[in-house]
């Protein structure tokens, strides 16, 4: 529906969003998906991001940042709003730490139980990080943003972003090793 609206618009603001939609959608969805409880919530919030972009397109100012930064800012606000409204639990996939290539392409019945236990351990480790750390992890590993892009989006210095990410990953590795993952 949203893509249809983008494709059939003569408005310059809509065309700008439309041109970036296919490129930015996967990163925005991935970022949201790793921050919310389930895929359905992520889909709803991603749709809400692009809906708000359509509604607020007149407020976009390219002098303040590029379209990607603007849309990720909306995405961050929508995730935070959803936490306030629904008190959703944050869920992060194992893929950002272990990578999808480490998973067996044809998991057996035992693998599901092992993955569930790994997920619980990861959730406990992530629960010990603060929201800023989880947000930076999501932007870096789910949205594949560089430290410079994250810096522009969050207002933190590029060095600070790198330091926080390094410390957070070290904390997670230590915590996960301690839980025999």
Q: Rounded to an integer, what's the Rg over CA atoms?
A: 18 Å
Task: Quickly give the structural class.
Answer: mainly alpha
Q: Tell me the CATH topology of the largest domain.
A: Rna Polymerase Sigma Factor, Chain: A
- Please indicate the percent range of residues in DSSP E strands (runs of 2 or more): under 5%
Taking pLDDT < 50 over at least 5 consecutive residues as the criterion, the unreliable ranges are 1-12, 87-91, 100-106
Q: Determine the oligomeric state from the structure.
A: single chain
Note the main sheet. Answer: none
Enumerate how many helices there are, as a single number.
9
Number of strands: 0
The assigned CATH architecture of the largest domain is Orthogonal Bundle
Shape: globular
Overall helicity: over 70%
The CATH homologous superfamily name of the largest domain equals: RNA polymerase sigma factor, region 2, helix turn helix motif
CATH class (first level) name of the largest domain:
Mainly Alpha
Termini separation (Å)?
43 Å
Q: What is the number of domains?
A: 2
Following the backbone from N to C, one meets helices and strands in this order, namely HHHHHHHHH
Q: If you average the pLDDT, what whole number results?
A: 77
